[in-house]
Amino acid sequence: MAKHFLLLNLISLSFCYVVLAFEPSPLQDFCVADPASQVTVNGLACKDPKSAKAEDFFFSGLHLAGNTSNTFGFKATPVNVAQIPGLNTLGISLVRADYAPWGINPPHTHPRATEILTVLEGSLQVGFVTSNPENRLITKVLKKGDTFVFPIGLVHYQRNVGYGNAVAIAALSSQNPGVISIANAVFGSEPAIQTDVLAKAFQVDKSIAALMQSKF
User: Do the annotations mark residue 80 as ligand-binding?
Assistant: First the structure.
């Protein structure tokens, strides 16, 4: 009996550690971010709640199409704590994603958030890659009204596979999910990763690695 009790305690403790690994639950109604604060915290300091106003919890603009006239044919319009200070400590954010025909949101990760994406217009091929050593691609074509989840930290992408524009809304489980674009991070770091390191990592000639770096 004692062994079972100890096992249950250990399991409960492990769940506590899982919870603590993500953003903490708020201990008050809200914590409107104070961008003028000099206090350094994991997140953003709160301003006096008595000074909170409706604009601290408001954003207008998700009805506007993003400009997709770029290399990728893609534009993200984020709505996180930078746009809505009232999101501070609430552990959620949004993004509007616009895709030109055959436009892509290149492979990337969100280090602090799981993403759930819903297609509003068009059709998207989406996918994510599981972690080592399996590295299995899980992919599906989504149509209007379909929803897909990208687990936290995993490399994922979206591609418009239609002949018209596509639009999606994604919710993320962090006030500031962050984004790491794989190609840009690897080939466009500052200072640059040594070319011979990239050549060996990607099993290509140094000239190919240098060419890729020049693109970023």
Answer: no
Report whether 63 belongs to an annotated binding site.
Answer: no
156 is in an annotated binding site: yes
Q: How many CB atoms lie within 10 A of CB 208?
A: 14
In which residue ranges of the chain is pLDDT below 70? 1-22, 24
pLDDT recorded at residue 41: 82
Sorted by sequence, the CB contacts under 8 Å of residue 158 that are 6+ apart come out as 97, 99, 104, 105, 117, 124, 125, 126, 168
Does 55 appear as a known binding residue? no
How far is the C-alpha of 155 from the C-alpha of 111, rounded, in Å? 10
Residues 47, 25: Cα–Cα separation, whole Å: 18
Q: What are the b/e assignments for 146-162, b being 16+ CB within 10 Å? A: eebebebeebbbbbbbb
β-pairing, 156-160 with 147-150? Answer: unpaired
How far apart are alpha carbons 129 and 133 in whole angstroms? 11
- For the entire predicted model, the pTM comes to 0.84
Per the annotation, does 23 bind a ligand?
no
Please check whether residue 142 is in contact with residue 123, taking contact to mean a CB–CB distance below 8 angstroms. Answer: yes
